[in-house]
């Protein structure tokens, strides 16, 4: 009996042992499989996590590409700078010394904890056997030091360096002196890294073309925004191994990945012509106490925008502060939401983002359509009795109804800006054809210019048009266009009939100046014939010389049309507010430039007619451009005799200081383009026109300084 019990007990023990061995075997297999997953399947992920715990990855900004004018002048550049960054977790640990006595910790934590701490202490030794120096500072002490060096508020600095973020920028674009002082302090968790700052050397020069960037160097407006992907480049990285309190390990894995700079952008803007436009816009703004003045200059042959200016504007170096002191004072009373809206209004590019009723400048399009459709010819005549008799239901009259123009040719009707004649021409064209051509001129589509926020023109479709709509549109009312649309359409009239796509950027280049990509001129469509274009240029010349007499400049064959339109506010025409404008081209026998000048709300007590306000500005600008292009003036005998009395020789100015050059110009009866404060010792490097050329008195001489 005892023997049987013993055998049963042995058998049970063997079974237990077998189960235990089986369990141990399966557990071992499971651990091996798990270890295999950790090391082989998930090994890379764990390795990545370990590297993230052992290292610090700091982004190195790529240098943003430079923006150049058409002649290679730098208009927007990135300069090397430094930024102070922080790893808050390391700042909080910064008051712990790697050399503190750990005996208590070892005793409390046991043998393994003590061994690990000793090992960490051993790793923290440098090759000479000495401890790597650490400045024991609390976060409060660190904040005080940084606030003093960076001239920042102490509480703001303390808040940043003790935040819960893993990485914080404390201050960007500090001086080299500040950077050096911070490096000398050897503050735990605080680093000074390479950075780039966007700078616009000419201040408020072409801001609506250039735009600006935010603090992260992303383009927000203008070319900075529309070509941001080319300008940005590829950021670099610095990866360093650190110990538990953020110090770089002497034998750690360190890597530096160099950033790739962004591409340079070459504009179609000509810096000299842009200066002419900026000066002209500012002068007419001040002379007529206007709300705004906008000027565009375009090469009609390829659609290149040579200048685009609107005053008042802003400085892209500090885009949230208005230049005008009066506006700046007004903004101090605004709420946060109102201030934000004021910024957006200031950043809007009126030449592209706004639409307006063009008034009589639109009559050029109406006339071109009539000639193309054979609804009129140079021999056509029109009788003006002061009223549009074809529309009996509306009291539409000519602007000079009190003294009608009487019988007139087509060219004389444009010179007289006769609404009565244009109404008849519009009705002769018919609403279907009128709408078809206005669409062909691009007034119901975006022009294609690479600037953000382009507005669309407003046209009525034929199905919604009555005869009265045809009549009012014929002389520029009841239709709205953007300035860039209008100048593009008139450029088509000037160049033989080709509607060009406006071009603001012509090339992308690398750091060595090699062309990476060319943006070619593009013809959208043929709108009118060469013959119609030639007839229109003749009509425009007569209009400028006999109609808008203030736009006449002897020898330079300027053609164009003025416009004076009542301003529309909330759908109503306002009697006391006008938009005065002029659009013209020169020389009419071979157009090189088209200029559009728009003056918004000139002071009516000074003058508001487009011929008086905008005409002279456009003519002066075209004359200066023709001189810059070395276009030879062609005078009639009568003009020649008058002009010879007014001619002076341009003096040699190269190598002179600006003070010496100005003295010479004044004595010669000439003016210069310099209207901003410059160093009196600045040297003249280039001049237009060149020395020895004959120009009329009071001509503007363009000076390029060093």
Automatic annotation (TrEMBL):
One of its GO terms (molecular function) is penicillin binding. This is PASTA domain-containing protein. One of its GO terms (biological process) is cell wall organization. It comes from the Bacteria. It holds the Pfam family PASTA. InterPro entries: Beta-lactam/transpept, Beta-lactam/transpept-like, PASTA_dom, PBP_dimer, PBP_dimer_sf, PCN-bd_Tpept. It is found in: Membrane. Residues 644-706 form the PASTA domain. Belongs to the transpeptidase family. The lineage of its organism: Bacteria, Bacillati, Bacillota, Tissierellia, Sedimentibacter. Keywords: Membrane. SUPFAM superfamilies: beta-lactamase/transpeptidase-like, Penicillin binding protein dimerisation domain, Penicillin-binding protein 2x (pbp-2x), c-terminal domain. One of its GO terms (cellular component) is plasma membrane.
